[in-house]
Amino acid sequence: MDGAGWRRFRLKEKKNEAEGAKSFIFESSETPMYFLPGQHVIIRFQDLEGDQRGKMRHFSISTSPLEGKYIGITTTIEPDDSPFKRKLDSLGNGEEVDVFGAIGKFIFDPGLWKESIVVLVAGGIGITPFRSMIKYALSMNGNFRIRLFYSGKTTKSLVFRNELDGLAAGDSRLKIFYTVTGEPERPGNLHSGRIDQEFIRANVEELNNAIFYVCGPPRMVEEETRLIVSDLGVDRNRIRTEQFLGY
Ligand SMILES: Cc1cc2nc3c(=O)[nH]c(=O)nc-3n(C[C@H](O)[C@H](O)[C@H](O)COP(=O)(O)OP(=O)(O)OC[C@H]3O[C@@H](n4cnc5c(N)ncnc54)[C@H](O)[C@@H]3O)c2cc1C
């Protein structure tokens, strides 16, 4: 499952994805990286100085293995960012970084997804591994149904929204339920508030047959996991989690 080891990758492209979020697409300067949808990498700047959190960060791969020999990461870029993020954002095309991976067990699993209802619960930038999983899964045959619950602070901060909507419009196996937590009025057809049990119950047909993936900042992952177990009565073994430590 792991294709791990340090390799040099060079920046191919930078993209604005939403307010305060960018993708960075890298290509290998050496051998391409083998990875499974949902896995993550570690990025290191050997020469970075003055960052209290060190020279390395973990990032889920937001691209799908089917998008060619590239790996993409997507992260928040804000004015008060850490030296690490400022360095990442200042990279020009062709500049190199050290990448370790791919690692992690928070993955699309064809055997598990087959015939199931797969409920993906994303908080903020926690959407990143789900883009990879969804793009990959929809390219396959299978009777799975994906229900993506995606919560962001504001409408403008929802990453990949147009692309995800396009995927859902083209494949009835994917349904998406957005919610925003930081806007007082209900904007358009979006739900507002957290992803709570009513919101999930109203949109997932067979909870007993569902498997859950939860990804986002640690507190959100803990709260959603507690809610899924105690309010929805889902067995803990049917829940996979990934915590984005550092938020
Ligand atoms: C398995 C895994 C996968 C991950 N995948 C992703 C991913 O796909 N995308 C992603 O964006 N992140 C991901 N992360 C989190 C990522 O590794 C970083 O921790 C995160 O992006 C924060 O980066 P940063 O430390 O540079 O802080 P920033 O992004 O600069 O800041 C994040 C927050 O921390 C505050 N902060 C910054 N520096 C400090 C400090 N020294 N002390 C206290 N607070 C501070 C900021 O004010 C801000 O609120 C993942 C983590 C793990 C473990």
Beta-strand share of residues: 25-35%
Number of domains: 2
The CATH class of the largest domain is identified as Alpha Beta
CATH-derived architecture of the largest domain: 3-Layer(aba) Sandwich
Major β-sheet, in short?
Answer: 6 strands, antiparallel
Q: Give the strand order of the largest sheet, numbering strands 1, 2, ... along the chain.
A: 4-3-6-1-2-5
Distance between the termini: 27 Å
Q: Determine Rg (CA atoms, Å).
A: 18 Å
What is the element string, with H for helices and E for strands?
EEEEEHEHEHEHEEHEHE
What structural category arises from helix and sheet content? alpha/beta
Q: Which stretches are poorly predicted, pLDDT < 50 over at least 5 residues?
A: none
| Unique bound compounds | flavin-adenine dinucleotide
Number of helices: 6
CATH superfamily of the largest domain, called what?
Nucleotide-binding domain of ferredoxin-NADP reductase (FNR) module
Assign an overall shape: globular
Helices and strands in order:
Elements: E1 6-18, E2 21-28, E3 40-44, E4 56-60, E5 70-76, H1 83-90, E6 96-103, H2 110-113, E7 117-123, H3 128-138, E8 145-152, H4 161-170, E9 174-180, E10 191-192, H5 197-203, E11 210-216, H6 218-230, E12 239-243
Parallel strand pairs: 7-8, 7-11, 8-9, 9-10, 11-12
Antiparallel strand pairs: 1-2, 1-6, 2-5, 3-4, 3-6
Bound molecules: flavin-adenine dinucleotide.
Residues 40, 52-53, 57-60, 73-76, 80-82, 84-85, 125, 128, 242, 244-247 line the site of flavin-adenine dinucleotide.
